[in-house]
Design brief:
Structural class: mainly beta
Number of domains: 1
Strand content: 35-45%
Largest sheet: 4 strands, antiparallel
Radius of gyration: 14 Å
Helix content: under 10%
Order of helices and strands: EEEEEEEEEEE
Amino acid sequence: MCGGVARVPAGLVVVADEAEVAEGEVRGAFVVGHPIVLCMVRGRIYACSAECTYDEGGDLARGRLEAYHLQCPEHGCEFDVRSGRVISGPAEEGLPSYEVRVEGGHVWVAQRPRGF
């Protein structure tokens, strides 16, 4: 901390207050205009795309979270929120996932997904 302000790496933006993300729930947000979901599991917040990769894509902000598995409400695809990896189909392509930092009571998310 420098002068009471958290030092967050360049390329991250605030998308929510930490208190808005509850354990075991899915919260929709936006990063640079792109819809994402925030999921807290075991006290850690994860972020990935809110658009299912199967067919026309379901809204994962309406999905169900069980442990680290996020289920799409449209076709039942399941993704691991830690990496975006497909757990069960019919989706074959994983979700873009984002670096997350919690600083100063805010949730900071990278402007670009990992690997992009």
